[in-house]
Amino acid sequence: MEQLACTGEKVGEPDLNRNELNPDASPQAAYGARLRRLREARGWTQVALADHIGFSSVHVSSIENGRKFPSLPFSRGLDSAFGLVGTEDSFEREWRNIKFGGLLEGFPEYAKYEARAVEIRLYNIGIIPGLLQTPEYARVLAESAVQRGAINPEQAEDRVAFLLERQKALRRTRPPMVFVTMDESCIRRPVGGAAVMDAQLAHLTEFAMLPNTLLQVAPFEIAERRTLNLPVNVLTLPDRSLICYAESQAQGNLDRDSATVVPMLTAYHQLQAEALSQAASVAMIEQLRKGTP
After folding, report:
1. CA gap 73, 95 in Å, rounded
2. Does the pLDDT of residue 204 top 90, yes or no?
3. Could you tell me how far CA 200 lies from the centroid of its own chain?
């Protein structure tokens, strides 16, 4: 309260259109209720807070009442006003949890690095890597997660939109080199029915024809020689530094420590050596499209 008052801002104007919120109704309602609680605990009006963070009091009121979705700049402004920048309780962190609630923790941060990487190495088990998924294939996976209760329909839409935005990195003026090694289960597991799967397999063969890509299938027959047992993404950034992202069913982990990332890169190269060549991989995919075992 003293911080705002000493800047000469007005602190006496009444709040606008106050509604009672149920924080359990939705993540957006919880955000608004928490904002109101912290603001009132400091004795600030909506006008005083709005002036401090560079937004209108109407905007503050709309978010507090759950009528408007908060933005990243708004959340960062709140963190500055409440002294929460970089903390576990920051509004920016809460915003990211709402916006990317359908994604594993750490993945949105990974995606920022992916967008400017000069080399991308991907390994997946069971499903086609996201960067290579068709929109139809991605939507089937997202809708399945909704049916299981893992995410809500809005998060499913965000998940697909986020994926399509990531895929733009492959079409930028100077696209990265993209190395993809997929476990054979990725292409043999049917997703979305025959039409969706056929279009997805066709997309893989088109991807393999690009000048900046390498597509390989790690066949079942390599057995214990498979060096990776979880999905792994390894990025090479413009300064040649490495970042690794690996995930389990429940969480994702972003690693920048070369002491652990370099061995992961080595394991990836060892897996590539055991995998089929790109020509043999494409031939296997085409056989599947024709219904040949």
Report:
1. 10
2. yes
3. 21
